[in-house]
Amino acid sequence: MAGTVIGEGLTVEGELTSDEEVVVHGNLRGTLSSSDAVSVGSGGNVEADINASALSVAGQVTGNVNVAERVDLQAGGRLIGDVKSSRLTIADGASFKGNVDMEV
Amino acid sequence: MAAASIIGQGTVVRGNVRGEGSLAIDGRVEGDVSVDGDVTLGEHGAVKGNVSGARISVAGAVAGDLHGTDAVLLESSARVVGDLGGPSIGIADGALVRGNVRTDGEPAALAGRARSTRSETPAQHEETSAPRAARPAPAPRRTAKKAAPARAKAKPAKAAPRKKAAKRRPPPPVVPALSKRTRGRKKKKKTRR
């Protein structure tokens, strides 16, 4: 089970720092950094720069993303911002606007 | 359905948390927490800010006010510096609290209205009457302390009020009078010779 869950209907405004998995089904505005994976559920809305080891987006993310391992943009997911990651997958049906830096 | 939210043990939130649904906090929150569901603060959880919710259960540390629309419950491991407010408040043995406790669950501005409406319902009236009884309790203690020295003064006053005054006055003058003169002369003599 995920360490931290921002449930549907919950809004966090500010800085969220974690060393465990973070799941966002609600709203988050500010910055989000985790040393573990971050996933944004289909109802999740994140307006924040994200630092994480891995990121999975099924909802909306607005902000720059800096991820150590991989970013998975799932169908229905929407990501607006620059992505810096060694791996990036964008599923069919996902929307993405921004630059990609894969650290080649 | 407003899903349950969890702020895990390794998570720190600097900012406000608000919204619907219940919230469990095992990490740290530096900001206000306002939820319309229940708030459960675990033993490792810490909040630096005000917390409001339906039913607030605290086993961790809070530096801020707690306001529960249903209840505020402090477990034995709770450490709270702040005010507690709610229609029902429970404090377990071992919990540490520093702050005001209001069982009427209304802010101070609405307290007058709340009391007038509550007098209609007997159950709530008992709750409100309890803190009222508790408040005057410290007053007699203070007066008792003041009364005790007053009696001591009164007893010699009955025998001889002037002597009592005379007894009081001598000690302060005697000590400085003797000490000032004697010390001054003795020291000067000793040091010079």
Summarize this, please?
Helix content of chain A is 0%, strand content 63%. Chain A has no helices and 13 strands.
Q: How would you describe the overall organization of this protein?
A:
The complex is a heterodimer of chains A (104) and B (193). In chain A, strands 1, 2, 3, 4, 5, 6, 7, 8, 9, 10, 11, 12 and 13 form a 13-stranded parallel beta sheet that branches. Chain A has no helices and 13 strands. With 104 residues, chain A is mainly β. The radius of gyration of chain A is 12 Å and the shape is globular. Chain A has one domain (4-92). Chain A has strands at residues 4-6, 10-18, 22-24, 27-34, 37-40, 45-57, 60-62, 65-73, 78-80, 83-84, 87-90, 95-97, 100-101. Chain B folds into two domains: 5-102, no CATH class; 138-192. In chain B, α3 (138-159) crosses α4. The N and C termini of chain B lie far apart (97 Å). Chain B has five helices and 15 strands. Chain B is of the alpha/beta class. Chain B has a 15-stranded parallel beta sheet that branches. Chain B is elongated and about 85 Å long. Helices cover 38% and strands 31% of the residues of chain B. The longest helix of chain B has 22 residues, at 138-159. Classes of the chains: A mainly beta (104), B alpha/beta (193). Chain A binds chain B through residues 2-22, 25-27, 30, and chain B through 1-23, 27, 31, 35. β2 of chain A pairs antiparallel with β2 of chain B, so a sheet runs across the interface.
